[in-house]
Write a structure and sequence with these properties.
Chain C: It is found in: Cell membrane. Chain C: Belongs to the CPA3 antiporters (TC 2.A.63) subunit F family. Chain C: This is Na(+)/H(+) antiporter subunit F1. The complex is a heterotrimer of chains A (491), B (141) and C (103). Chain A is 77% helix and 2% strand. Chain A is built from 20 helices and 2 strands. In chain A, helix 14 packs antiparallel against helix 15 and helix 14 packs antiparallel against helix 18. The longest helix of chain A has 32 residues. The two termini of chain A are 14 Å apart. By secondary structure, chain B is mainly α. Chain B is 67% helix and 9% strand. A two-stranded antiparallel ribbon of chain B has the order 1-2. In chain B, a hairpin with a 3-residue loop joins strand 1 and strand 2. The longest helix of chain B is centred in the first third of the chain and has 24 residues. Chain C has 3 helices and no strands. With 103 residues, chain C is mainly α. The N and C termini of chain C lie far apart (66 Å). Classes of the chains: A mainly alpha (491), B mainly alpha (141), C mainly alpha (103). Chains in contact: A-B, B-C.
Chain lengths: 491, 141, 103
């Protein structure tokens, strides 16, 4: 069953190609999209089940042996993330017909949507650092197309920034891969990890590591490099924002987790110490950004930055509990960010504007939306018993065990402010003066995917007992690179 | 309206376009072990088509070659992806390719590889993409 | 006989290198013409000759290496050059490259 590993990449690719044949027949396209995304979800679920029960799946494409050919590695972390990706992609696929104008759907929206999933799944599953670059390009190409979809003026202005910053970081990425290849003579991640331990000039490897971190930090929107992100994520349609916010930055942070737990672990005192400080600064600046604006979409977009900070914090502390916390938080954040973007898109549609100063008293017309926002604010900020709490608790325990107190204080404070930034939408938009001239619009179809995602997210918190053992086994697996190396090179 | 004297241009085009098409097929089939392949073959074919567009204008060309170039892109992608998936049928890992020697009546002993099918996919994709891009820029009114 | 062959070999090599140098000089002059060229027609002609020089370089490299695989490349450059020059010429003359209807 070794081909199982590649199916989550292949199915969206084929789906995207097939849907490109008849972009104009919207009814057919929508039905097929749902069929394909549910099928892909089932396959991803099955492969996750398979990996958790029978160990990692290694696929040597084209039957070329491991260090020479391209390999696809489906280990526990990868399949868990692929499964989460597919869950939120399914929610977006069900939300899209309500949110996108028909005109935009005809511009091959679903094709690019599936190509984006292909790129993201590929980036999670690949075991080869050059192919990581290739899949990054696949998902970036799809995202360039999605961000300009429809060609509104404000979209074009923001997408120029987006395209330039990503082209620049892709250029640095391929340069860094070139340096790495020049130094260790391979692009297979397992073999790189093996050789990094043997090379005597470790200074140059640290430099390459920092360069790669810079690249991934641009994609993940970490502290000094986040300036391009919030606006360009807030301007497109809510579905596209949800896809970007929940997937693209997470691919960046996944690459950091993978590369800095497997390859560059020879100078933990230098690299990982820096991560903690960058994580703390990301939390502070992200929260300040979220508090500074009155645009509800921008508030959510800014909230991505502290979340990425929390995950990086776990990598920085780099012990069993902190890494478990980071992975738990990563999965929690993918789901809750998608749900929040969709929810806020719904609210902006219902209110007719995304400016918080221009609407109030929505609770009289949409009580359900209001309480959904209330709950997701709690989930995001990590109020017990919701899922954010479990991740943060693990992170706290891990870093207190390492006596890193300063970052703990920053994290707790910024959690409080995150809660405030979401509650600000609730207080100003849903409470307050009732506007009697207001005409409510039907939002039923739009709330269903949000409710599904939110329910899953609540389950992640309440049902933590079911999920925690697998997360713990992932972090144990990540902390010992020998596991990965042996699985790939000897399996 | 200003009318250029295109006689030489049109006469040579009818000759050169077919040389180009033949050369592009040669490049497509020469690939795999020597310079050439699907990408450059597709570029050459699209060059021939663009040359004809320049000589005869888009209205006439649409009558002569009623091809929807946009449809060629997913067709090519499907062929290219299909060669990867084809290996599933033979219980081989994804993207496995194979080759064999065949005796054909006219060509004699010939080495045929499944990688050539992948090249055909690339050929159609590149042809579709290039012609679509150039025509949509040129016909922007 | 052997002596004679090696002598011609050396002559061919020297001649190739001299030709390469000459073509490089002409490249620089053509670059100057492309930048400064008083009219667009000058620039088009300069670009065309630059492409010819490129074909020449490919041919000389084929002699130096020596290989026959570059022959396709030379043909390819020639064809792309032809189409490019045609497009520029048509643009200069008419302002449109692909017209809707010529009749």
């Amino acid at each position: 069953m070794s081909n199982l590993a590649v199916l989550p990449i292949i199915i969206p690719l084929i789906a995207g190609i097939i849907l490109a044949f008849f972009p104009k027949k919207l009814a057919l396209v929508r039905t097929l999209t749902k069929v394909f995304i549910i099928g892909n979800l089932a396959v991803a679920g099955f492969s996750a089940w398979h990996v958790f029960n029978h160990g990692s799946i290694i696929l040597e494409t084209g039957d070329w042996a491991a260090p020479y050919g391209i390999i696809i590695v489906a280990d526990q972390l990868s399949v868990l993330l692929v499964l989460t990706t597919n869950i939120m992609a399914a929610a977006c696929a069900f939300y899209a017909p309500y949110s996108l104008p028909d005109r935009k759907e005809r511009y091959y929206f679903y094709t690019f949507f599936f190509f984006l999933i292909t790129g993201v799944s590929g980036a999670f599953l690949t075991g080869d650092i050059f192919n990581l670059f290739v899949f990054f390009e696949v998902l970036l190409m799809a995202s360039y197309a999605l961000i300009v979809l429809g060609g509104d003026k404000v979209q074009l202005r923001e997408s120029v920034k987006y395209v330039f910053i990503n082209l620049f970081s892709s250029m640095l990425f391929v340069t860094a891969v070139g340096f790495l290849y020049g130094t260790v003579g391979t692009v297979n991640m397992a073999q790189i990890a093996q050789r990094v331990q043997e090379v005597d000039q470790q200074g140059i490897l640290t430099a390459i590591g920092i360069l790669l971190f810079f690249v991934f930090a641009v994609k993940a929107a970490l502290f000094p490099l986040y300036y391009w992100m919030p606006k360009s994520y807030a301007v497109p349609n809510p579905v596209i924002s949800a896809l970007f916010g929940a997937l693209l930055t997470k691919v960046g942070i996944y690459s950091i987790i993978r590369v800095f737990s497997l390859i560059f672990i020879h100078r933990i005192d230098l690299t990982h110490e820096v991560f903690i400080w960058i994580a703390g600064l990301s939390m502070i600046f992200g929260v300040i950004g979220a508090l500074s604006t009155n645009n509800i979409k921008l508030i959510i977009a800014y909230n991505i930055i502290p979340a990425i900070g929390f995950i990086l914090w776990g990598i920085g502390v780099f012990n069993q509990e902190a890494v478990s916390g980071a992975i738990y938080y990563l999965i929690h954040d993918m789901i809750i960010k998608a749900s929040l973007f969709l929810l806020v898109g719904t609210i902006a549609y219902a209110a007719g504007t995304s400016d918080l100063r221009k609407f109030s008293g929505l609770i009289h017309y949409y009580p359900f939306l209001g309480w959904l926002l209330f709950v997701s604010g709690f989930v995001l900020a990590g109020i017990p018993p919701f899922s954010g709490f479990i991740g943060k608790l693990l992170l706290l325990k891990g870093s207190l065990a390492d006596e890193k107190v300063a970052v703990v204080i920053i994290a707790l404070l910024s959690s409080l402010l995150i809660l405030y930034s979401i509650m600000k939408i609730f207080i100003r938009g849903f409470w307050g003066e009732k506007d009697d001239t207001f005409e409510p619009k039907p939002v039923k179809g739009r709330t269903a995917p949000v409710v599904a995602l939110l329910a899953l997210s609540v389950f992640l918190g309440i049902g933590a007992e079911f999920i925690y053992p697998s997360v713990e086994s992932i972090s144990r697996y990540l902390l010992d690179p020998a596991n990965y190396i042996n699985a790939v090179l000897e399996g | 309206m200003y009318k250029p004297n295109d006689l030489i241009f049109r006469t040579t085009t009818s000759l050169i376009a077919f040389i180009l098409l033949g050369f592009s097929i040669y490049l497509l089939l020469a690939g795999h072990n020597s310079p050439g392949g699907g990408f450059i073959g597709g570029l050459m074919t699209s060059a021939a088509i663009i040359l004809m567009y320049m000589a005869y204008g888009s209205d006439i060309l649409r009558k002569i070659l009623p091809v929807n170039y946009r449809m060629l892109i997913p067709t090519g992608l499907l062929i290219a992806a299909g060669t990867g998936i084809g290996s599933f049928l033979f219980q081989q890992p994804f993207l496995s390719h194979t080759y064999n020697h065949f005796h054909l009546p006219v060509f004699g002993d010939l080495e045929l590889a499944t990688a050539m099918l992948f090249d055909f996919g690339v050929y159609f994709t590149v042809l579709g993409v290039t012609v679509t891009i150039i025509l949509s820029i040129a016909e922007d009114r | 006989m052997n002596n004679f062959l090696s002598l011609t070999h050396i002559i061919v090599e020297i001649a190739t290198v001299i030709c390469l140098a000459a073509i490089s000089v002409s490249f620089i002059l053509l670059l100057f013409r492309i930048v400064s060229g008083p009219t667009n027609a000058d620039r088009a002609v300069a670009l065309d000759s630059m492409g010819m020089n490129m074909m020449g370089i490919a041919a000389l490299m084929a002699i130096l290496i020596p290989t026959t695989k570059l022959n396709d490349v030379i043909l390819l450059i020639g064809i792309l050059l032809f189409i490019g020059t045609l497009a520029v010429a048509k643009y200069l003359e008419k302002g449109v490259i692909i017209d809707r209807n010529l009749d």
